[in-house]
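Pasting as-is:
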Amino acid sequence: MAAAVAVPPTLSLHQIKAKFRMNKDISSNVEEVLKAQNVSWATRTAIKYSPVSLLVDNHTDDATATEYYVSTQLLPGGIKSEENRVLDNAVHEKVSPVFGPVKGQNGWITVADAAAIHPYLGEGWDNPEDAGLVHAYTEGDATKKKGCEWYSHQVFGFAMVDLGDGKPQRMYISKLWFRAPGLPEGGVTKRLVYDYCPDDE
């Protein structure tokens, strides 16, 4: 396996357009989360055993001044999941091809505000004084067909990660606090770590 490439210090979530690859050696197992979201066995298996790439694109539509944070997950076999998040903190509803009917809101958040939601979400980020994290709150809509009940707070940003060689590297991180019926009271926390892929941009 090729060595992980550190995210350059000049790269921020603002106006980002980059490709990453999930580092499964140091990422959390999210099987219980995906199962609680009624994600199909085939998709869960692909995520567990196949390489997962992620395209991240933050941009603003000049005509409407609307800011978007788009995360596109790519799996072998043509499996693709795109999350087109509008960073306006307004509630949006949609039917996801992976998660079914959902609603949620997205926006920029400080480290302190992330920690206020759940302490785990505020730990270990770069530049804790900056409002440089993206927060996505999503819940499954159990009132609609094929919907189920679950609640997710997800925070995206950069953090220094120890890869086991004593030389921490700056990497793209997604931290999750997830609650759903059948899971432990208080929910579960997960961390997904992504290697930077500069040659694939």
